[in-house]
Specification:
alpha/beta; five-stranded parallel β-sheet; Aspartate Aminotransferase, domain 2; 304 residues; three-stranded antiparallel β-sheet; 2 domains
């Protein structure tokens, strides 16, 4: 273990480097030449600058080399606390022996297959995921590669269900301002960031956003505002195919009020609206429960 004084110094250096960030064409950019952690890291940053698009230049000036427990290290002896949890994929911490052993077992077995082809581990995984679902007898598991694919499929399934059962009038998909559901086209249409939609020019008008009841960006946390906003946009509940929300919005983090979440579920049940919870950043224990929606006492139709 590294001495605490060195760890805290490394954190301070990381924090101070953020003061040197600049904006270029609306993109926040870290310039490694302004505040390098170590001079030896400059060629790596320069190589990435030449080979990757500008959209990949927003990370702190740290060269990840190894990670263990809740910390990440470079190969020059600096160490940081990883508040990102590996960008939401290391809920159990970095370098867990059980996880390493499982990976070695798969590699040594000689089978490295995609999720499309049938193999025993795929059956074990889908059974495990179904067992922790709200209703194991009635839920099905669809394995995909990314969170964006998962949320896109929530949109697709919601709209397909509504179209086949009710026809084209039940066409709207409702989500929240400031939400993030991924970087593919459908996921960004459902997302709540106007800046991320500018490139689309002509958008699908069946995607509708309402204020998120966070209590500070939007002080009105009543469910009445949800209904009022839809009415102002000419959308009536019987015409909604699906509603999607993150368990909590990562920019806060901001949770829904419990009574709001329960009223949303009641509306979905009354009008046969597919209720989708995006658990990509909240699921598998990150909020203290297996899934974040469990804090609300609701049962989603679809979980991404």
């Amino acid at each position: 273990m590294q001495h605490p004084s060195k760890l805290s110094t490394a954190i301070t250096r990381t924090s101070s480097s953020r003061e040197n960030r600049g904006s270029e064409n609306g993109c926040i950019r870290f310039d490694a030449r302004q505040s390098p952690q170590v001079p030896e890291s400059l060629p790596i940053f320069e190589s990435l600058r030449q080979t990757e698009p500008r959209s990949m230049s927003g990370q702190p000036v740290i060269i990840w080399d190894k990670a263990e427990d809740c910390t990440v290290s470079d190969r020059w002896g600096n160490r940081w606390i990883d508040w990102s949890s590996g960008v939401l994929i290391t809920n159990a911490g970095h370098g867990r022996k059980e996880i390493r052993d499982s990976l070695r077992e798969v590699i040594d077995h000689g089978l490295l297959a995609s999720y499309v082809f049938v193999h025993e581990r795929r059956a074990r995984l889908t059974q495990m995921l179904r067992d922790i679902s709200p209703d194991p007898e009635n839920y099905r598991v669809f394995l995909l590669s990314t969170g964006s694919e998962a949320t896109e499929n929530c949109i697709k399934l919601s709209k397909t269900y509504a179209l086949k059962k009710y026809g084209s009038r039940k066409k709207y998909f409702v989500s929240f301002n400031h939400a993030f559901h991924g970087r593919t086209m459908g996921a960004q249409l459902a997302g709540g960031s106007e800046e991320q939609k500018e490139w689309m020019v002509d958008r699908d008008r069946t995607f509708v956003q309402v204020p998120f009841p966070d209590g500070y960006k939007n002080e009105d946390t009543s469910f009445d505002l949800f209904l009022q906003t839809l009415n102002e946009k000419g959308v009536q509940p019987p015409d909604i195919a699906g509603v999607m929300t993150e368990t909590y919005q990562g920019g806060g983090p901001d949770f829904l009020p419990v009574d709001y979440a329960q009223k949303l579920e009641a509306l979905c049940r009354e009008h046969d609206i597919v209720m989708c919870y995006d658990e990509v950043q909240a699921g598998f224990g990150r909020t203290g429960k297996m899934f974040g929606y469990q804090h609300y006492g609701v049962r989603p139709d679809l979980i991404a």
